[in-house]
Amino acid sequence: MIPHEVFAALADPTRLEVLNRLARGGPATATELSAAMPISRQAVAKHLAALDAAGLVERQASGREVRYTFDPEPLGDVVRWAEDVGDKWDGRLGRLSQSLE
């Protein structure tokens, strides 16, 4: 079962961009991410909180600074779910094709 938070996090274009920046550029703070985006640090922090709730980022606090790192593990669950759904549909479509022949 896939938590709905993962899909909700991936559905928002800004959160997806934040996640892509972390995946490509490595760990970063909300301040560093906001410097490269057209939104405020507070907005980035809210998006990071949603990504954290979905398990897609890990927080690493060092004093007052919090760095975020991309965690791909929940995406593996999404891929397995999509493959399972795809396999079921392949079977259904295969049976339909056989019955039509």
Question: Any overview of this molecule?
Answer:
With 101 residues, the chain is mostly helical. The protein has a domain at 4-71: Winged helix-like DNA-binding domain superfamily/Winged helix DNA-binding domain (Arc Repressor Mutant, subunit A, Orthogonal Bundle), CATH 1.10.10.10. The chain has helices at residues 4-11, 13-25, 30-35, 41-53, 73-100, and strands at residues 57-62, 65-70. Strands 1-2 form a two-stranded antiparallel sheet. A hairpin with a 2-residue loop joins β1 (57-62) and β2. α2 (13-25) crosses α4. It starts with a helix and ends with a helix. The model has no long low-confidence stretch (mean pLDDT 91).
Please provide the ordered H/E string of secondary-structure elements: HHHHEEH
Overall morphology = elongated
Considering DSSP H and I runs of 4 or more, what fraction of the residues is helical?
55-70%
Q: Say what the CATH topology of the domain at 4-71 is.
A: Arc Repressor Mutant, subunit A
Strand content: 5-15%
Instruction: List unreliable stretches of 5+ residues.
Output: none
- Average pLDDT works out at 91
Contiguous helical run count: 5
CATH uppermost class of the domain at 4-71: Mainly Alpha
Rg over CA atoms: 18 Å
Largest sheet report: 2 strands, antiparallel
Class by SSE composition: mainly alpha
Task: Tell me the strand order in the biggest sheet.
Answer: 1-2
CATH superfamily descriptor of the domain at 4-71 = Winged helix-like DNA-binding domain superfamily/Winged helix DNA-binding domain
Question: N- to C-terminal separation?
Answer: 36 Å
Please name the CATH architecture of the domain at 4-71: Orthogonal Bundle
Quick one: how many beta strands? 2
